[in-house]
Amino acid sequence: MWKAQLYQESRFKLMALSPVGAKGLAQFMPKTWIQISRELKYNKIIIPYSSYHAINAGAYYMRKQRNQWNWKRPQEDKHNLALASYNAGLGNILKAQKLCNNALLYEDIIKCLPKITGHYSNETITYVKRIKKWYQLF
């Protein structure tokens, strides 16, 4: 699944740079890269364009997102919520959950995301669907 997510993030392009400033294979935003590289004790000169470090840091960050959704719910929902959190930010998905009466399931939570992230919610919803599609193809 991680391979499919990396493909969705950057199409496996080492030097990928998004219009909003996300960088590298795993498309880290600058502040997130700083946070994760500190947690992993990366040297300050390591950049998100290093494939080895980006792949490992991205997998670590995805695991952190997954661990946030450890409450009793189906495995697929846990993973979909982790993917949505990787894309939109954990805080936004938690806000959507709260707005939807603390719903547990991905499909219920994601219905409230447009009220939190506006038109960007379509990107997150599509992001999760595409990764599942790429996973089937890989």
Output the CATH class name of the largest domain. Answer: Mainly Alpha
The assigned CATH architecture of the largest domain is Orthogonal Bundle
| Alpha carbon gyration radius | 15 Å
Q: What's the number of helices?
A: 8
Residue share in helix? 55-70%
| Span between termini | 9 Å
Query: How much is the average pLDDT?
Result: 96
Describe the overall structure.
It is a single chain. With 138 residues, this protein is mainly alpha-helical. The protein folds into two domains: 1-68, Lysozyme, CATH 1.10.530.10; 72-138, no CATH class. It is 64% helix and 0% strand. It has helices spanning 2-10, 30-39, 51-68, 75-88, 90-99, 106-110, 113-117, 120-137. The mean pLDDT is 96.
What tags apply to this protein structure?
8 helices; 64% helix; single chain; Lysozyme; 138 residues; mainly alpha
Q: Quick summary of this structure?
A:
The protein is mainly α and 138 residues long.
